[in-house]
Amino acid sequence: MGKIIINRERCKACAFCASVCPKKLIFFSQEVNSQGFYPVELRMEEECTGCALCAETCPDVAIEVWR
Ligand code: SF4
Ligand code: SF4
Protein backbone atom coordinates (compact mmCIF):
# COMPACT_ATOMS: atom_id res chain seq x y z
CA MET A 1 0.00 0.00 0.00
CA GLY A 2 1.39 3.35 -1.02
CA LYS A 3 0.51 6.94 -1.55
CA ILE A 4 1.82 9.68 -3.80
CA ILE A 5 1.58 13.42 -3.50
CA ILE A 6 1.76 15.36 -6.75
CA ASN A 7 2.89 18.96 -6.68
CA ARG A 8 0.42 20.47 -9.13
CA GLU A 9 2.42 23.64 -9.65
CA ARG A 10 5.63 21.80 -10.60
CA CYS A 11 3.94 19.43 -13.04
CA LYS A 12 4.48 20.17 -16.75
CA ALA A 13 2.06 17.48 -17.93
CA CYS A 14 4.64 15.43 -19.82
CA ALA A 15 2.83 12.23 -18.74
CA PHE A 16 6.07 10.26 -18.24
CA CYS A 17 4.78 9.20 -14.83
CA ALA A 18 1.49 7.99 -16.29
CA SER A 19 3.29 5.95 -18.93
CA VAL A 20 5.41 4.05 -16.39
CA CYS A 21 2.81 3.43 -13.67
CA PRO A 22 2.28 -0.35 -13.72
CA LYS A 23 -1.23 0.09 -12.38
CA LYS A 24 -2.17 2.95 -14.75
CA LEU A 25 -3.44 5.16 -11.94
CA ILE A 26 -2.24 8.55 -13.16
CA PHE A 27 -4.44 10.79 -15.33
CA PHE A 28 -4.61 14.43 -16.38
CA SER A 29 -6.69 16.64 -14.16
CA GLN A 30 -9.35 19.02 -15.47
CA GLU A 31 -7.92 22.18 -13.95
CA VAL A 32 -4.98 24.12 -15.30
CA ASN A 33 -2.09 25.16 -13.04
CA SER A 34 -0.38 28.56 -12.88
CA GLN A 35 2.07 27.51 -15.62
CA GLY A 36 -0.77 26.75 -18.01
CA PHE A 37 -0.49 22.94 -17.82
CA TYR A 38 -3.08 20.37 -16.87
CA PRO A 39 -1.22 18.56 -14.08
CA VAL A 40 -1.66 14.87 -13.45
CA GLU A 41 -3.57 13.40 -10.55
CA LEU A 42 -3.81 9.98 -8.92
CA ARG A 43 -7.06 8.07 -9.24
CA MET A 44 -8.06 4.81 -7.55
CA GLU A 45 -5.60 5.68 -4.78
CA GLU A 46 -6.14 2.41 -2.95
CA GLU A 47 -4.47 0.59 -5.87
CA CYS A 48 -1.14 2.40 -5.50
CA THR A 49 1.67 0.07 -4.40
CA GLY A 50 4.17 2.79 -3.59
CA CYS A 51 6.60 1.36 -6.16
CA ALA A 52 7.89 4.93 -6.81
CA LEU A 53 8.42 4.42 -10.54
CA CYS A 54 6.37 7.54 -11.23
CA ALA A 55 8.49 9.69 -8.93
CA GLU A 56 11.77 8.30 -10.30
CA THR A 57 10.65 9.10 -13.84
CA CYS A 58 9.42 12.65 -13.24
CA PRO A 59 11.94 15.14 -14.69
CA ASP A 60 10.46 17.93 -12.59
CA VAL A 61 10.59 16.16 -9.22
CA ALA A 62 6.89 16.79 -8.77
CA ILE A 63 5.98 13.49 -7.10
CA GLU A 64 6.58 12.42 -3.53
CA VAL A 65 5.95 8.77 -2.55
CA TRP A 66 4.90 7.42 0.83
CA ARG A 67 4.75 3.77 1.81
S1 SF4 B 1 3.93 4.69 -6.82
FE1 SF4 B 1 3.82 3.10 -8.44
S2 SF4 B 1 1.71 2.36 -8.38
FE2 SF4 B 1 1.73 4.28 -7.23
S3 SF4 B 1 1.15 5.84 -8.77
FE3 SF4 B 1 3.41 5.74 -8.74
S4 SF4 B 1 3.97 4.28 -10.37
FE4 SF4 B 1 1.77 4.00 -9.92
S1 SF4 C 1 6.33 13.09 -14.92
FE1 SF4 C 1 6.21 14.83 -13.48
S2 SF4 C 1 5.97 16.64 -14.79
FE2 SF4 C 1 5.52 14.85 -16.07
S3 SF4 C 1 3.28 14.61 -15.91
FE3 SF4 C 1 4.18 13.34 -14.30
S4 SF4 C 1 4.22 14.65 -12.45
FE4 SF4 C 1 3.91 15.96 -14.23
Q: What's the helix and strand layout?
A:
Blueprint: E1 3-6, H1 16-20, E2 26-28, E3 40-42, H2 53-57, E4 63-66
Antiparallel strand pairs: 1-4, 2-3
Bound molecules: iron/sulfur cluster (2 copies).
Architecture overview:
Helix content is 15%, strand content 21%. With 67 residues, the chain is of the alpha+beta class. It has one domain: Alpha-Beta Plaits (2-Layer Sandwich). It starts with a strand and ends with a strand. The site of one iron/sulfur cluster (SF4) has 15 residues, from helix 2.
Strands side by side in the biggest sheet: 1-4
**Structural class based on helices, strands and sheet pairing:** alpha+beta
CATH fold-level assignment? Alpha-Beta Plaits
For the record, the CATH class is Alpha Beta
Tally of separate domains: 1
- Helix proportion range: 10-25%
In this entry the ligands are:
iron/sulfur cluster
Shape: globular
Helix count, per DSSP? 2
Going by CATH, the architecture would be 2-Layer Sandwich
Strand content is 15-25%
